[in-house]
Model the fold of this input.
Amino acid sequence: MEPPSLLIVAALVLGVLAAFLRGGPTLAADGIVKGAELALSVAPQVLIGFALAGLVTVVIPASVISAWIGEGSGLRGIVIATAAGMLTPGGPFLQFPLVAGLANAGAGLGPVAAYLTAWSLLSVNRAIVWELPLLGVGFTGARWLVSIAVPIAVGLLTPLVLRATAR
Done:
């Protein structure tokens, strides 16, 4: 079992044990049932996200993904991924399967990091629907001006950090 999987299993065991010690088998069972209900409630979104990720990777050939946002795409690939992250709507149930699919199809670490950062920090959809109406043009514009370089910096630095820490 890989270390992250082991940590998840250990957290689950500790959670069940804590619930059992706090309220007996009934509380532990209730916690497991509530977790299963939550999993079932998000399952359709997760399945749609994985289906979309699979479709993107078969509709767009791996050679195109690699050429545009692959390891060798450099700053151009990071800028393209940043723009795509800014323009792609949807929550984490869509984004993370999509990014995993793109990474498996040849997207580079830098562009993947830039995409996720731009999606979380500079979503055009979220700005139009929430930020502009509630916080105004001045605040939104200032925040975007300050934030616009962040995905590019993250895209450039993430591969360097990963290489430095892999030694």
